[in-house]
Specification:
Chain lengths: 114, 226
């Protein structure tokens, strides 16, 4: 892989990891790094204190563990397809390169067969 | 950007569903036509859909101290046009609404509108604009994916502000509040999504040069970069 590819990957890792260090815990000792969706729900509570949700989820994961299992499955399905494509692509390019280089070696084999 | 189940008043839920439905129908039609005409695109469409599945499952920490996820729909919008990403985003959001209690059926229309419609269309528009300005492919792809991701979260903030305007400041005050939660959190994550999209497009340019030539990302004559 090219150096630039590694550089981009390193930047993504840094962008993800740095907030964990840079952000200090709020004074209240509240849980850190909750979902922004939950933060929005709390904001709705302050803007419209009287609002009650009028529909409940049809199915709710039994626990946070089950939810993370399903999220992991979703990510794995995506990563699996991308991995398949990358593997196929690399192998296909290698095969193409080999056939381009092959004529000389095949000719040599034929000579040996004679 | 998932508005939770039941957290949009019925009129808003219905309105956003009605707004999203024609785009979904158009997207299904466009996708079917594209695949019938070019069956060889199936592989890359699969990769684009997989990218959206993968990225929207990853909740990443951000500088605001809360977590949010990229959307991954920018890549497909550049390759196949924005309409093709509407069904893909719809499937992702439906999966999360039904099985994960993440988002919801009543808010599906609004969430599809922000993630599967506004995001891809902004990405596509930014890419075309970048190409017209003569930006290199890498820069144009990065800006497209990054700004499309941000646009999704700005849209969610606007949707919530419309439904819950502040008692004093109205829509604007409420919008700033929700944007402070969603859009601000999203900035580093949007940058990550832009970078990851560049990586995948670079890999496609190397391995699938033939298929790519007929797609928007290549059709726009951006300057090739090494």
């Amino acid at each position: 892989m090219k150096i630039r590819t590694w550089g981009i990957l390193a930047a993504v890792v840094l962008l993800t990891v740095l907030p964990l260090w840079l952000v200090s815990a709020p004074p209240g000792g509240e849980g850190m790094f909750g979902g922004s969706d939950d933060a929005a729900r709390e904001a709705i509570g302050t803007v419209a204190p009287g609002y009650r949700p009028w529909f409940a989820p049809v199915f709710e994961p039994a626990s946070a563990e089950i939810a993370s299992l399903l999220f992991a499955l979703q990510a794995a399905a995506g990563a699996g397809v991308i991995g398949y494509w990358l593997g196929l692509s690399v192998a296909r390019e290698r095969a193409r390169r080999d056939t381009a280089a092959a004529p000389t070696s095949m000719a040599a084999q034929e000579r040996r067969a004679d | 950007m998932h508005i939770m189940e039941g957290f949009l008043p019925p009129a808003h839920a219905l309105g956003w569903t009605a707004a999203a439905a024609p785009f979904l129908a158009w997207g299904l039609h466009a996708m079917g036509r594209s695949l019938r005409a070019h069956p060889e695109r199936r592989m890359l469409l699969g990769v684009a859909a997989a990218f959206a599945f993968l990225l929207s499952a990853l909740k990443l920490p951000s500088v605001t101290g809360s977590c949010s996820h990229p959307t991954g729909v920018g890549l497909g919008a550049l390759l196949f046009g924005p309409a093709a990403m509407v069904p893909v985003g719809f499937v992702v959001l439906l999966f999360q609404a039904l099985l994960l209690a993440h988002g919801g059926i009543t808010t599906l229309g609004a969430n599809v509108f922000s993630m599967a419609i506004v995001g891809p269309f902004v990405s596509y528009g930014v890419f075309r604009a970048g190409a017209a300005l003569g930006l290199s492919r890498t820069v144009a792809v990065f800006l497209a994916a990054c700004l499309g991701d941000l646009a999704t979260y700005v849209t969610t903030s606007a949707q919530l502000a419309l439904a819950f305007p502040d008692a004093v400041g109205g829509f604007t005050t409420s919008f700033m509040k929700f944007a402070g939660i969603f859009a601000l959190t999203q900035v580093p994550i949007a940058i990550s999504e832009g970078l990851l999209t560049v990586l995948v497009v670079n890999a496609m340019a190397r391995f699938n040069a033939h298929e790519l030539r007929a797609l928007p990302v290549m059709a726009a004559r951006t300057r090739e970069t090494a």
